[in-house]
Amino acid sequence: MACALSIAYTSSLSPSASRSRSRSPSPSPFPFTFHRGHCLLCYAFPELKSQPDRITNKPNPADTTSNLPRSTNFDDHFGKVVRLRQSHWKGGQQKEERRRLQKADAISSQEALDLFDQLMAAKNPPTSIRQLNQHLATYTRTLRNPYPTVFLLFTRLTQADGLGPDKVTYAILMDCCARTNRINLMFGFLGRFLKEGRRANAVIFSPILKHLCWEKRTGEAAIVVLDKMPKLSFIPNVISYNILINGLCKKGEIVEAFNILDVMVSKGHEPDVMTYNTLIDGLCKKDEIEKALNFLYVMISKGHEPNVVTYSTLIDGLCKQGEIEKALDFLDVMVSKGHEPNVVTYNTLIDGMCKKGEAEEALNFLDVMVSKGHEPNVVTYSTLIDGLWKKGETEKALSFLDVMVSKGHEPDVVTCSTLIDGLCKKGEIEKALDFLDIMVSKGHEPNVVTYSILIDGLCKTGEFQKALYFLDVMVSKGLEPNVVTYSTLIDGLCKTGEIEKAFDFLDVMVSKGHEPNVVTYNTLIHGLCKNGEIEKALDFLDVMVSKRHEPNVVTYNTLIDWLCKKGEPEKALHFLDVMISKGLVPDVMTYSALQNILQ
Fold first, then answer.
1. How far apart are CA 470 and CA 328, in angstroms?
2. CB of 352 within 8 A of CB of 320?
3. Potential cystine with 212: which of 55, 199, 217, 396 (Cβ 3.0-4.6 Å)?
């Protein structure tokens, strides 16, 4: 019998590629090409057992949990799975806390297989496919290396009498493939599903949409939702639209996300709480807090009650804007509506207070948090250490480090990076480098943030060659420099007058898929002005605006200052007018730059 269809991912689906396919006389019904080839289902083809992804009954060496002693206690196994599901689905709980619970209730691959067999053998009452799917979904999210176990359980389901995989089972299996980066297998299972003559629905496409959005290929995800699914009579549901909207928001494409919302509503789908929460979060992350608050009122007017996630998102957005009082007002509203703040909410407010320099208020709020029965975690302590360190209260910061360790919380990369950042800001680079050595010796591998902090500190002290050395170290360890890293290096080059090299780094940054932010543009505009290239700076301002980056007070202050210095007061006053018309308030720096021409 011919093997199941395997689906190969054969194109990157650029817009031009999709257009060319749409003109083809026999367009493919999917955004990928079907072909008969070698089967990806190992159990059906014994000759493939030598492949790295083979499935056997032997414990997987990569899954260290499989080496745990076997237990035959059904209740013990079942209790673990229930606790794992509860710890995963407790949405407001801090991720670090969920990981702790999952580690405490770790279930091995063999235990999962034993439990699943017992569930399938149950006769009074028989286990439903829905219950089995719940267990498969839990294993997908909690086992260290879930694919071999989930695949084997899927195989047993296909061979069981009276039971068999349904649409949800296939969706879980495809999701497992996406999570473990077995993308060809994911499309292979979709091919098998369709070959069996099953009727697909929106659920089946969810793993594909999640994968595309996770890889920031939102254009392709939009094609699947808006074009391919309807053509195949698979009507996208609210979940399909939510996945796409979430992907667009995470990519910072808020306008496009709201366009999809309009399409969703026009198709008769009512946005749910998750839709509103996703868009509010996207607006907050773009610093559009007023729009986020307006959208909250739209949400309420449509009869949707904000939940803990909604309030926590808005509190986080307000804190990032320095609006601590408004954030505390929202906390009061949240409590009055019967929503109990969680560790994430408290950590957000403590972080906002620390960033505003209100370390004492943050410490008082810590007492409130503890009095409400919430145990501070690594994030709480790291935030307070950072806030105290930046306030110059070194002793208090170190005492909190001691408290943190005494409470059983091992300082993590974030904590260590915080301390390194504090030393760099005090100009104590040598101590920062010593602490880096201690950090590594304790088994904490520096991450992108750690290296970016060191690079920034070295650039600020004029040690640019050392900064480049750490960039090389960072890349050699497989870490990808981010916008902050590149912006820091660009700033260092601008300060030393090496504008051409700064723009070379900008080109590298863009080629790596990193979009320059307002800070990057401001740095280069200042560098050009300082180098006497005002016209180029003005041209670069146009580029900045064309890329949808709104100039801020710093941008206009820089241009006004250097235009005044160059003796072009009319242009300087023009930018003052533009600045005010944009709703930006001139500050001390603005008037200081204008003082000579205003006298």
1. 41
2. yes
3. 217
